[in-house]
Amino acid sequence: xxxxxKLLPTKTNFPFVSLARLFATLSIIAVIATVVxxxxxxxxxxxxxxxxxxxxxxxxxxxVDLAKxxxxxxxxxxxxxxxxxxxxxxxxxxxxxxxAGANPGAVVTRVKGAISQALGQVTYSRTDEIGAEISxxxxxxxxxxxxxxxxxxxxxxxxxxxxxxxxxxxVALFHDVTLSFGLIILLRLEFSLNLVAAxxxxxxxxxxxxxxxxxxLRENRRKFKRMPLRELIDLSVNETLTRTVxxxxxxxxxxxxxxxxxxxxxxxxxxxxLFGIVIGTYSSIYVASPIILLWGVKKDxxxxxxxxxxxxxx
Amino acid sequence: MLAFSRWKIGLVVVSVxxxxxxxxxxLLPVGVLPSWAPSQRLxxxxxxxxxxxxLYEVDTAALQKERLTNLVEDVRTRLRAASIDFSGxxxxxxxxxxxxxxxxxxxxxxTLLGGALGERQIxxxxxxxxxxxxxxxxxxxxxxxxxxxxxVDAVTRSIEIIRKxxxxxxxxxxxxxxxxxxxxxxxxxGESDPEKLKSVIGKxxxxxxxxxxxxxxxxDVAAGRVPxxxxxxxxxxxxxPAYVVKRRSVVxxxxxxxxxxxxxxxxxxxISFAFNxxxxxxxxxxxxxNIGKPFAIVLDKRVISAPVINxxxxxxxxxxxxxxxxxxxxxxxxxxxxxxxxxPLNVVEQHTVGAELGAxxxxxxxxxxxxxxxxxxxxxxxxxxxxxxxxxxxxxxxGLMIVGAMSLTQATLTLPGIAGLVLTLAVAVDxxxxxxxxxxxxxxxxxxxxxAADAGFGRALTTIxxxxxxxxVAAVIMFQFGSGPVKGFAWTLFIGVITSVFTAVLxxxxxxxxxxxxxxxxxLPII
Lengths: 314, 527
Prior knowledge:
The complex is a heterodimer of chains A (314) and B (527). Chain A has 314 residues and is an alpha+beta fold. Helices cover 65% and strands 10% of the residues of chain A. A 4-stranded antiparallel sheet of chain A has the order 2-3-1-4. In chain A, a hairpin with a 1-residue loop joins strand 2 and strand 3. The two termini of chain A are 38 Å apart. Chain B has 527 residues and is α+β, with helices and mostly antiparallel strands. Chain B has 13 helices and 18 strands. Chain B has a 5-stranded antiparallel sheet. At the A-B interface, helix 4, strand 4, helix 5, helix 7 and helix 9 of A face helix 6, strand 17, helix 10, helix 11 and helix 12 of B.
């Protein structure tokens, strides 16, 4: 049988809503776990957000004498200096904080001098230094960007749909962003600007997925005016299921290529995006829609059945 | 909708041509294409081609402090010239304070200083205010507006000076831009040694010639006792650790017209310089009056050398000798030619990526894009058969359009931008999935193939637009928020979303329309 799509049942009748309670519980547990994790062990902030310096060095043919590097750097009185090997034995990465009040540029120059003293000729494949002032700004901007994204999504959904839909979508977004943070904490990924970009993308994707389900829900509500919301949600999710699965799998396939072959620096970004695709799909079905049910049912009870006929969309 | 309309086919042809023409320069070696063809390639970010990103903060606090220090010297000179006795002259808080010894002269001093200090402002009045306070005190402050103006001016001038210095270094395609009020971004591709760049950019290079005060005894120097109009400066000349010099400079670096590295009679590196008219006059005057006394050549508050004046130097040119190497003499000459920075510059952020690391990243990016695209093609064709092939064709055009648009606009492709590209390709397929699923729904609802296909495009469109606006919003926010690499990601995503909606809807529509005409099938291949 080809194409493959013929293998999928054309019509599914999964009782998604009846499992909502179970999944809501799981989601809430995961969210609580993330909140706890945010305090302990906490987010592993990269230098983008806490300031500091990273040097990646290469010694050519000779292996790096890590102990010797540590020795000279501890003599510089910089506080906590991390020296680790990185990939190959002749590569190493050095991380350190700029002491308070010091000029980051001057400190890096001193550290490079000390390293040359210990290892001789060294090439630096990467130098990153971020002053405390910049990292503080980035922190504020990062939080601002995430909030602005969620806020704008709410406004857009409110504008295009109805308030309950918007609330459902935004709760789903918070859910997705929180759990993505959970993953970042769990895997001890270094939280960098790239990951903020990943989170913003997840917000976009999760919203995209939610909108598709909502669109169908809105349409079905016009089509089947007397159908209870619960059934409407099940129907809409089932109707869009093939699309959800195919789009989700396409994104996962494309990103897994990136995660495997994209190199060290893109790996955290791709891992978080992969997770975000999965969680974004899940939340459209199990977070966004049930929220509407919670809110929408009350509204339906209050409003007199039969619902007033709405003008058909053209 | 599926009926062939000429403008749709025209649009598709134009967009394909656009994609091909502007993508081509990236695929062919330089010089193959005729000169009239577009030749712009993708503009790779520093993380992909290697290079340095330096963010400098102009130290406006130091600038303000220097202005106040100058003000102190100004007050001293003016009061002395007018024979007004004073005491306690110095910085006080955000201004300068001085006590006039004779109560009768307080108002005279206030008028004198109020009319002479600072600069005349455009709106009338001066940027310095002089106020009398109890106990014969005068408080002299610089206006906030002038502090702001000085800062703005310092940033603008710093950018010019940095540009001169970097150009002199021969850095290829540097970019120097202002960021916010007091920051300057320097981006230098290819330069893998940022330390050299930083040492050239960051040096204030303020050159002054000051007379050495020979009246101060070595004991006073050791005890740190220095007269009020002198200052003690550390020395690098190798003879003495420090010199006590007159605060007032005889000549300054601003009066230089040229400076170049040269050699002295013993073939040691030195720097030849020439003064402008004013500098030459003042230098001649001072040297003729002070024969036999030493003067200090001071760079950034450090004495380079302190030669003794052997005779009047009237030609307006001379040499600076000191502990130079060939390189340091060359660099210093460069710095002196470009002029002194008006205020110190501090590096607050730096990213440097070696060219090799960048090349590795490009290679990894290419591989992951190819693999990602391959997987998407395989999956979409497996899922939707012939229509999947149509979607894949649309995806290829989409890729060409993105690369073409990015080459044309010279938007920067960064490493996260590659991730954005991969994601865009995946999300682009979503539009086709939505359309095809809609078609299947319509067939199930009993519509004939052609009409179902038509309705599929029409009905899916609102959903597609709704769904993609959200990604656009996310991209715009990222663009606002992000620094270089994240901006690249946002930009790629933004271009990609727009082109993908366009190609996924229009190109597949034309292809499916053509298929209906050519084969006149009664069923869709996706049912």
